[in-house]
Protein transport protein SEC24 (Salvia splendens), 815 residues
Amino acid sequence: MSVRPTMTRFPLNPAEQEACGVPWGMTVAPFAAMDENGIAPVYGSNGELLPRCENCWAYFNTYCQLDQWSWDCSLCGTTNGLSTQSIAQYSLPNSCAENISSFIDLELPQEGSEEMKARPVYVAAVDLSSSEEFLELTKSALLAALEALGPGSLFGLATFSHKIGLYDVQGPIPVVKNVFIHPESLENLTVELEDVMPLFSFLAPVDTCKDLIASALETLKPTTSWERTTAAGQGVDGVLLGGRGFGVAMESLLKYLGSEYGNTYALVRTSNSSPFCFSLWWNAARVFAFLSGPPDYGLGQLDTRRYGEQYASKGEDADRALLPEQTPFYRDLAAVAVQAGVCVDLFAVTNEYTDLASLKFLSIESGGSLFLYSSTDDSTLPQDMYRMLSRPYAFNCVLRVRTSSEFKIDHSYGHFFPDPEYENVQHIICCDSFATYAYDFDFLTEVGFSLHSKERPTLQIAFQYSVVVPPNELSVSSSGTSRRDTYSLQRRLRIRTVQFEAARNINEIYDTVDPEVILSILFHEVNSNFRKVVVAIYTYAFCKLGSDRRDCVCVLSTSAWLSYNQIFGFDLPYRGVILSSLEQGIREARVLLHEWLVNLVAQYNDAFKLVEHGRGSLTTSRVDVAFSQCPQLQSLPRLIFALLRNPLLRFHEEGVHPDYRIYLQCLFSALEPSSLSRAIYPSLVSYESPEKQAFPRHSLSRAALLTSGSPIFFLDAFTMLIVFYSSTADASLPFPPPQDCLLRRSINKLKQERSITPKLIFIRGGKDDATVFENYLIEEQDVEGSGFNSVMGFVSFLDEINQDVLEYINKPNGK
Ligand SMILES: [Zn+2]
């Protein structure tokens, strides 16, 4: 579990928090094997016996004051009694995990039977309203998946189009049973899938049925247009319906799987030839949904004409209109999935407008991933699938963050499902070691922290989860074969308690910030919900350096004065924060980011006394935009510039496909801070030769490339890796770089460590088209558009920030 705060010295009180202009929050990767310093948890057992505070329910930890018969909670200070058993145990030094480390992983007792075996359930739902190429790609992805699935897994194959197909592969030949979806009906299917095919026939053990599943995959064929039109009846206005009944198919599949969720039961199948029996117990299943276009049939169909209408430009803001979901159907379906313990991974292989803005909720809220591949040709789908399934993951997780009593969690961000009843409790059906969640904090009262008290700002993160534990290696080697039933299911409780310090002044805050985490929090604030973007602009700049309250009200009235009060329910002057929300588009998000940076620069210049005020005006025309006094802040202007240049926040007119934008939003919002900052501002390394590095870091500018004089560059943009040979590179340098060189080894290492499969491209400058590479050289690009201009780019962006900061500070009614 890695925990990264935006600063290790927390602001002392609300005034300080606003004055510093830096978001106060953290990122947490709960299932990461190590903490942020590379230290593993101390393992233990009897998690259910770990003492808890009777006041705040925090768990006992190493920061608690321990007496012979009692302990003081490190979060709220309450004194709690110890049980006789704990008294005996805690009297011995290092007797248990919770006495040794503040990062522990404890086993919990199994629910249900002792003999329980892990039976992970996987279901593929394949779109047949598609092409041969799409099905070929899907087949190879599923074959890769079968290779990656652990022993004991159960696999089910379903298809959808204008009908739903369920496969029974366990007999001598695969049998498919179809149910037709009614095109007009507002109801779901007239029959339950359980009545069409019992679950035990549908879910086949991968160990024994791998070949049978593979041959069933071979029989998949796209539905013919004749079939579809016959089923659908008349098309609207002579336009044929596509017949992709995705909504109904997913809804009925989730109910089908959910019917036995959490039950321990034996499935007995007796066919004439081979009596077959297995017991099934699962508390999480994964559905892989392969989609070749928008759902356009039956319940949950999406109207893709809105995209066409935007292109026809009816004076509406496309960047605003295409962001919200057009129906709550898939968000509601995600709730059904979570209830059923099912996580949905969505693989869209299409270049058609599919409205991922509506579909995304089904995957991200159920803890799944969303993948978009614009073509079947260079798709990394099979590799991504294999990679995703071969790494360990936790399932059926509950994540809870507790804070010491001076502060609280304000917002939480990430791919989870919030508990409908308890605050700050998140359900995550499926979570791998990369999955990262973000939080921002707020003070509970005006008092804040105390510098003199020994009670320090404290956080405790509790993560309860299940894992499949591999068989004991000894028993495998002794018997010579691996037995599938040696895999077992384990429930665990992982707890991390972290203490911080309060900063004595703003400079201390600035000295301990982590720019990557700041970028993460800003990213989430801007992107978590475009429809209801909640971004804080700290009004300290307005109040202290510039305008009066009227300006604040002015800003609010252009966004959402009402919603601000409705959502947050406190007075603006008291809190001093403007939160604008509702109906925000790309344009607003960009303005808010820009203003955030302007404010930070103003605060920093004020804190370091870099600007001098004359009579109501400044005596200087320049402020320190580069944060020259504070190395920790120096990368921020570049990161903000790059975020503004990212397709995520670029305008529709610049040719950013709305589905691609949503895909990036989903991908980025689960990344840990270092990966996110690499995706936003790629790293650029130069090489003298494939075997020798020249410079480890270049800024993303053409000028930097030219002046460096290096022949080879390697760019890592997280989803894309580019090796670029400059046009002046010596012809004797081998191209592409040979397999066993330093450059290749670094590339392979990066590929291995990454959550997705990055695309690798080799380009020779002067010979190949270098546009892909050059597009990443953003620093000469105009922040507001794609045009190249020698006077624009990053330098003029800084000039603009400089001007805006001066304007703020110079407001005539300033103090
Ligand atoms: Zn407590």
